[in-house]
Amino acid sequence: MPRTTPHYMPRRDGDFAAWVSAYSAAIHSFYEAQGLDNKDLEPFDAALLEWNAAYPAHVAAQAIAKGAGAAKDTARAALETRVRPITNFVQSFNKTTDADRATIGITVRNTSRSPAPPPTGRPTATIDPAARLTHHLRLIDDAAPTRRGKPKGTLGAEVWVALVEPGAPVPTNPASLSFLTLTSRAT
Q: Is the pTM of this model over 0.85?
């Protein structure tokens, strides 16, 4: 089906290469069938020859670059596995100073950091049965029940689940529950 838009040339290079090859054959046939001078197509033919040399060279260069990138990534991963044990040793060596760490370019441990304050409360979950067979949990601070979100100083809340028959008592034995996830989001 002929294209009716002004952007009749394919955008992707591979599609363009196939299209321009077919276009060249068709346009030469058209000029010959109409008795037109093929000399008018010489600039097109020269540009097509240049494209036919440049495009495969580009594809080959991309393949080489991908291969080089993969080789670089593999070499880096191998080098990182060699660096980590040495760094771990240097970090734990009792004669290593912070100046040594800075010179080597590894982490200088911050010993002046104060510990995190104890949590102000504990996260409590409310259940919102928003949709069929779905429960949305909302974390609230039990010390400040009007505040949404987990209490300051807490990582989140563990979510444990047990499926029980309708009307059955709520399980009280922790062994009957299954750990589902640790959530740190308010919803």
A: no
